[in-house]
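haha ok so turns out i had the wrong file open the whole time. this is the CORRECT one, sorry everyone. sequence first:
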Amino acid sequence: MSNLIDIVDAPLLRVWGDAVRARRIQGEQITLAIVELEPHAIVPEHRHEAEQLGMVITGEMHFTLDGETRVLGPGGTWRITANRPHGVAAGPAGAVVVDVFTPIRSDWDRLEVIEGETPRWPTAG
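then structure:
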């Protein structure tokens, strides 16, 4: 795989059912992901070894971390240290977010690849 690719050429992965899908670029120690959430998508509370930073690109999310829930729109960010419980609910228009994980999300290697669907972001134009 080339070190220079367009994110739309990365495989689309089914992360949480049909409601949450992602494309990722993976380095040796870091994962960059564009995550697309359908309207009102729910990501139940979960935790993982990877530290996570993220930012909303489009739409909004109701993000719960450490017992605090906030509505985050474009430019809203999060910082999740390893093994911290967190969950989200997408707003009525859904959301597209950037997530960065370290160490890499090798557990995503087992996710189903979605064939033949167009990513929501970036939009053609």
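The radius of gyration is 14 Å.
again sry for the mixup
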